[in-house]
Structures are given as structure tokens and as C-alpha cells.
């Protein structure tokens, strides 16, 4: 991306073995940074790291459980010893239990708390621990992944006629991620730490045609996005081009939320 300089930066991407995270890792490495693939899936994570390295990029894989303080602290220690610094954290992991995605009337209190706790709680924990490390380091950058459903109310009509729904946990989590971002940006004021988030629209993943058509009707051109459509915004937030962008939520949704 023209004008974006993140060469040799050490960028931790949680959930980097997944659909969006893997594109983030490829984009970060292509821009010259070290893509640290932090994930619970060792097989997929190492495979992605090998792919990036085979294409002349810089990548590492490290096991990470975002709900474990010990795991997060171990990652920070390993990377600091290896590289002497950590430049940025991208909170992209998407933890959820096997019952996630049920309709409102079928969601139990226990499942709601479990899913909110692991996802939002994990983002809190990683941001807390990396933020404290960044304070000692003298600088740092955190990018959180939120969603348009953290910005606008669900459009349940686009799910009609399908087996899909918009999980209530997701709305609660992603709206909270946006405000957590603002909280952290303000809390770390004067510490040379930036905290921002990206709210993407829907991402293509073999959804039924009837859903895609209804979704596209609210969009201004493309409709559902590809993961690659988000990488430019991430690179911007990781670079000095955005050095005075702090506490912000950038919506990338093809105008869907208008």
C-alpha cells in the first residue's frame, strides 16, 4: 500500500490462522513487518507461517490463549527476548463455544456469559497486558476488531428464509469492543500508545444466495466483503500515516450501515 511504512515492525495478530486473520498476516508480512501468528491452532498457524516465509515474508507462529494471562504474558516475554520489542497488537481472535449462534429464545444465560467472557474478556486481557508492556516500552499500537453490528441495530430481515441469525452475544460483544477501545485510548493518554478499532461489514463465507441478495440490497456497490478488503485499513492504522488517529472506530462496510 503506497505510503504505508511498517517495515520490520513486530505485529501480533490474534486468531491469525482464521479467515480474516490469515489475510491480515499476509498483508502485514507483504508490507515488510514480522507477522506474529498467535492462535490456538498450531497446525494451521504453522502452515500459514511457512507459506509467508516461502513467499519471502517474515512470520512467526506462537500458541496463544487470549483468555489465559499466563499465555499472554509468555507471548510478550518470548517476543521481547526474540526481537527486543513488540510494536503492535491486533485483537482479531473470535472465540466461541459450540452453542454459539442460536436464536435469542434458545440462548442460555450460561452460554451468553461464556461467549461474552471469552471474546470480550479475551480482548480486555490481551489489551491490558500488552498495554502495560507498551507503557514500559514507551510506545505501542492496539487495533481491535469490532463490527457494524456494534454500530447499528441488527437487520433481522436479511436473515429471513435462512437458518442464519445475528447472535445476541455478537451484538453485545462488538458494541462493547468499540467502547473498550475508547476507554483504553483515553486511559493510556500520554503514554505514546494508540488504540483504534475496525468495524467490518459481512465477510463472504459460503452464505446462502437468498441472504447475499438481501444483504447486498443495503450496500452501495459490492455487498459482502472479502477479507482482503479490510487489509488496507489495518495497514493504515499500523503505520505512522495514522499517528494522530486514536480512540477511533473505522467502519468498512460498503455503506451497509447507512
Q: How would you describe this structure to a colleague?
A:
The chain has a single domain, classed as Rossmann fold (3-Layer(aba) Sandwich). The longest helix has 29 residues. Strands 3-2-1-4-5-6-7 form a 7-stranded parallel sheet, sandwiched between helices. Strand 5, helix 5 and strand 6 form a beta-alpha-beta unit. It is globular and about 55 Å long. The protein has 258 residues and is an alpha/beta fold. The chain is built from 7 helices and 7 strands; from the N terminus they run βαβαβαβαβαβααβ. Helix 1 packs across helix 7, helix 3 packs parallel to helix 4 and helix 4 packs parallel to helix 5. The protein starts with 9 loop residues before the first strand and ends in a 6-residue tail after the last strand. Helices cover 41% and strands 15% of the residues. InterPro entries: NAD(P)-bd_dom_sf (IPR036291), SDR_fam (IPR002347). Belongs to the short-chain dehydrogenases/reductases (SDR) family. This is Oxidoreductase.
Amino acid at each position: 500500500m503506497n505510503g504505508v511504512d511498517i517495515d520490520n515492525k513486530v505485529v501480533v495478530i490474534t486468531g491469525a490462522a482464521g479467515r480474516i486473520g490469515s489475510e491480515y498476516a499476509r498483508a502485514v508480512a507483504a508490507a515488510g513487518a514480522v507477522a506474529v501468528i498467535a492462535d490456538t491452532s498450531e497446525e494451521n498457524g504453522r502452515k500459514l507461517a511457512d507459506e509467508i516465509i516461502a513467499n519471502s515474508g517474515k512470520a512467526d507462529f506462537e500458541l496463544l490463549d487470549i483468555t489465559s494471562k499466563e499465555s499472554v504474558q509468555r507471548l510478550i516475554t518470548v517476543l521481547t527476548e526474540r526481537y527486543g520489542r513488540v510494536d503492535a497488537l491486533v485483537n482479531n481472535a473470535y472465540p466461541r463455544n459450540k452453542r454459539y449462534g442460536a436464536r435469542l429464545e434458545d440462548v442460555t444465560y450460561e452460554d451468553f456469559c461464556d461467549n461474552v467472557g471469552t471474546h470480550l474478556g479475551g480482548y480486555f486481557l490481551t489489551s491490558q497486558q500488552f498495554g502495560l508492556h507498551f507503557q514500559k516500552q514507551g510506545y505501542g499500537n492496539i487495533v481491535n476488531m469490532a463490527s457494524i453490528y456494534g454500530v447499528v441495530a441488527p437487520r433481522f430481515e436479511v436473515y429471513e428464509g435462512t437458518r442464519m441469525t445475528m447472535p445476541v452475544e455478537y451484538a453485545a460483544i462488538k458494541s462493547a469492543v468499540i467502547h473498550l477501545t475508547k476507554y483504553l485510548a483515553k486511559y493510556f493518554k500520554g503514554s505514546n500508545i494508540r488504540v483504534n478499532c475496525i468495524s467490518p461489514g459481512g465477510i463472504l463465507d459460503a452464505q446462502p444466495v437468498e441472504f447475499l441478495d438481501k444483504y447486498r440490497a443495503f450496500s452501495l456497490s459490492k455487498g459482502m466483503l472479502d477479507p482482503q478488503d479490510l487489509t488496507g485499513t489495518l495497514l493504515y492504522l499500523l503505520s505512522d500515516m495514522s499517528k494522530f488517529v486514536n480512540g477511533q472506530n473505522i467502519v468498512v462496510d460498503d455503506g451497509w450501515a447507512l
